Amino acid sequence: xxxxxxxxxxxxxxxxxxxxxxxxxxxxxxxxxxxxxxxxxxxxxxxxxxxxxxxxxxxxxxxxxxxxxxxxxxxxxxxxxxxxxxxxxxxxxxxxxxxxxxxxxxxxxxxxxxxxxxxxxxxxxxxxxxxxxxxxxxxxxxxxxxxxxxxxxxxxxxxxxxxxxxxxxxxxxxxxxxxxxxxxxxxxxxxxxxxxxxxxxxxxxxxxxxxxxxxxxxxxxxxxxxxxxxxxxxxxxxxxxxxxxxxxxxxxxxxxxxxxxxxxxxxxxxxxxxxxxxxxxxxxxxxxxxxxxxxxxxxxxxxxxxxxxxxxxxxxxxxxxxxxxxxxxxxxxxxxxxxx
Length: 340
What we know:
The protein is 39% helix and 21% strand. The protein has 340 residues and is of the alpha+beta class. It is globular.
């Protein structure tokens, strides 16, 4: 038996070397499924009342359960990310769907994207005004349309050809977002020529929701949805629907971003993480550190990602990020700040 055990271990290590992974990496591949989600990153005060903190934790837990039910029963990564994001879109605490921020004109314009890492199929939308769950329409764009990206009136016209639920634009309204918009307008008017709009933007909390998943068949998927930036100007498009910037999935990893969209776009951030892993042979954590520390500035963004072995990484260079994760081994995380 001793010699048999030695032979088995030798064959295991040889197999690992031939496939380019260590024994620990091969062990990690035994994770059957894994997923992570976020509800936005930015300047999040730790002085939040306990009751408010609990509401956010409860919202993250609810979204976590939506993904768990799908993946533990052998469901697909695509189903998981869609329904996790739908849960967050329906929660008024987060800047997506019901609870989306106001544009400069006092309206709600929603963006969303979804991507299948196995096929590189993708669907994206920007400027939606009447679709209750933009992420579900994004999936229909991916599966039912010859195109990838629809915008504005065209996105609404595409929605007319589907069975997605529609609502009045006012239904996205929440009093908290309305007050936030009023403050943002006052602050924008108060900016002097000596001050930088860049500094003002970096001082506000960024809101986006997203999910990434690895399923029991080894597939990866990513999905992201947002109401954009408070008081954003006419026609502004952020990183979320730009495939490769705020949303990306391939055979290596699935990534969803949150933060200052302009900075995330400049660095094609989600795709950069996947490319750094593939072409540098880096781990998921190393790739995340590279984009956050070498390409982006402090306070710019946060990311969630899962790789093709089911490893999860959730990192930010902001003060906080609403985030949660779970895998088939029962490893569960629900956090807002670095250690809480």
